Amino acid sequence: MSYDTELLLRLYRQMVKIRIFEEKAQELFLASELPGFVHLYVGEEAIAVGVCENLRKTDFITSTHRGHGHCIAKGADIYRMMAELFGKKDGYCKGKGGSMHIADFSIGMLGANGVVGGGYNLAVGAALAGKIMKRDDVAVCFFGDGASNRGTFHEALNMAAAWKLPVLFVCENNQYASTTPYRSTTAVEDIAVRAIGYGMPSRIVDGNSVLEVYKAAKELITWIRSGNGPVLLECKTYRIKGHYVGDPELYRAKAEVEVQFANNDPIKRLAELSIKEKLVKQSQLDEVMTETISLVEQSVEKARAAQYPDVSELFDDLYAEEGVKLNA
Ligand SMILES: Cc1ncc(C[n+]2csc(CCOP(=O)(O)OP(=O)(O)O)c2C)c(N)n1
Ligand SMILES: [Mg+2]
Q1: Is 70 in the pocket of ligand 1 (CB under 6 A)?
Q2: H or E element in which residue 42 lies
Q3: Other beta carbons less than 10 A from residue 307's beta carbon
């Protein structure tokens, strides 16, 4: 597959947007400016970006507790995300949800999720709804290696396969579930093998190569959209940051993380490849970086100055209004 400059820059821009947004979120959280909990996606950006670049606005995604990357890759607004992290009224959930509950139905983003494995059934439901309505939308379900040991994983994969629903299950195997290394909870080398049990095809890719993820997702999404049923895509990656911001990380050696970050940072890998292939100039990458830093900085300043929701609004929006349409 040959890649053009425009695609490489688009993938780079999206990954950088996630990285800069999150580095800022980390800084703000450590400075006690943000309430709640923040889980970072640093080092895993290639997965959300490689997959979501192949989606339409009307396609659905479900996310996890580590959801900033999925939101940004699907096209969420940086300011509304930042305002949500600050707990401000302009945020996606009017400041009442925080990092783990950012959703934007208008772009098919069905929500980050504090419940590990909480996205499976939402994705299967969205895919079923689309099928009943005779649409050709696809639902993508992002989940972690730890989440693949939940019962809902098996129920969702079985139903999606039996009913040939248009779902791409994307496992982000980052080698850890909180403080637990992958191999201490999981006997199989690859999560992908589990697809066999449901009569579902699967694929394994290097989750830190955005081009590899992009190419695999392109093929699989086209296949799924044509009515062939679900697929399980396992992306091998590594969680560079702690499980959450503030995690003392007593369960792994610092050197392990440093080696991964030095050799396997997906953003650095794409930049180096693009320059080596003479498809992109360093000045173009620098420009993307400068523009993104400024965009995120502006979102922080605006969010800082924004209003908190009023106490009288505490119980608003607990239930959906009748007849609300997704992707209207
Ligand atoms: C149902 C449920 N069980 C446990 C937790 C606590 N918890 C939060 S994140 C996490 C680990 C998830 O690991 P994984 O699915 O690999 O995702 P990662 O954090 O590595 O992205 C756990 C156990 C939870 N939020 N929900
Ligand atoms: Mg994990």
Answers
A1: no
A2: none
A3: 10
Q: What is the CATH number of the domain that holds 200?
A: 3.40.50.970
pTM of the model: 0.97
Does any ligand 1 atom lie closer than 6 A to the CB of residue 149? no
Q: Is the pLDDT of residue 204 over 90?
A: yes
Q: Is the pLDDT of residue 142 over 70?
A: yes
Q: Could you tell me the residue range of the domain that residue 223 belongs to?
A: 5-304
Q: How many structural domains are present in the chain?
A: 1
CA distance 40 to 20: 11
User: Rounded to the nearest whole angstrom, what is the distance from the C-alpha of residue 41 to the centroid of ligand 2?
Assistant: 11
CA of 27 to the centre of ligand 1 (A): 23
Is residue 196 domain-resident?
yes
Q: How many CA atoms lie within 13 A of 112 on its CB side?
A: 28
Dump pLDDT digits (tens) for 68-95.
999 999 999 999 999 999 999 999 999 9
| Cβ neighbour number for residue 263 with a 10 Å cutoff | 10
Distance between Cα 132 and ligand 2 center (Å): 33
Minimum CA distance residue for ligand 1 atom 4: 116
Residue 188 lies in a domain: yes
Q: Is the CB of 181 under 6 A from ligand 1?
A: no
